[in-house]
Amino acid sequence: MRTPRQMLEDFATIAVVGASRHEEKAAYAVPLQLKLHGWRVIPVNPYAEEIWGERCYPSLAEVPETVDLVNVFRPSGQAADVVRQAVAIGAKAVWLQQGIVSPEGRRIAVDAGVDYVEDLCIAVERALDRLTKRF
Q1: 5-14 exposure pattern, b = at least 16 Cβ within 10 A, e = fewer
Q2: Cβ 96 vs Cβ 119: under 8 Å
Q3: Domains along the chain with CATH numbers
Q4: Could you tell me the pLDDT band of residue 14, with boundaries at 50, 70 and 90?
Q5: How far is CA 127 from the centre of its chain?
Q6: Is the pLDDT at 109 greater than 90, yes or no?
Q7: By the 8 A CB rule, do 44 and 18 touch?
Q8: Which of 64, 65, 115, 124 has its CA 20 to 30 A from that of 91?
Q9: At what angle do helices 103-112 and 76-88 cross, to 10 degrees?
Q10: How many CB atoms neighbour CB 16 within 10 A?
């Protein structure tokens, strides 16, 4: 299993389930920081057409490109279902944001050989490690 830092170093394309259209929310600001630091960030939200200037998709299954990591901004009770969807599309990792935990989601990821992080802010980890993605 990769560490959070290794995930950020190894993966370039991040789909954000629960990405928000509202600038005051963490689900808007956190993924935007990843985008601004070089990652390909794909918003997944069935109620939006575009976020951060990127086309938004209603579900992970509808994202037309390979997703390395799925970043989750959904309540803990919905996390296991998102992990199942991430496994189904072949994502290599799932990252549940700070405050989101799911023992069932962890089990699904581990059983599928998918790297897994929970209850940790991806933007904080990026900033602490001073990482940027360069292509």
Answers
A1: eebbeebebb
A2: yes
A3: 4-128 (3.40.50.720)
A4: very high
A5: 16
A6: yes
A7: yes
A8: 124
A9: 10
A10: 30
Pick from 22, 128, 113, 8: nearest CA to 71: 8
Kindly report, residue by residue over 73-92, the tens digit of the pLDDT.
999 999 999 999 999 999 99
Q: Which of 128, 120, 124, 123 is closest to 101 using CA atoms?
A: 120
Q: State how beta strands 50-51 and 54-55 pair.
A: antiparallel
| Phi and psi angles of residue 8, each rounded to the nearest 5 degrees, phi first | -65, -35
Quickly list DSSP for the chain: ---HHHHHHH--EEEEET--S-TTSHHHHHHHHHHHTT-EEEEE-TT-SEETTEE-BSSGGG--S--SEEEE-S-HHHHHHHHHHHHHTT-SEEEEPTT---HHHHHHHHHHT-EEE-S--HHHHHHHTT-----
Query: Which of 45, 69, 49 has its CA nearest to residue 59?
Result: 45
Overall pTM > 0.90 = yes
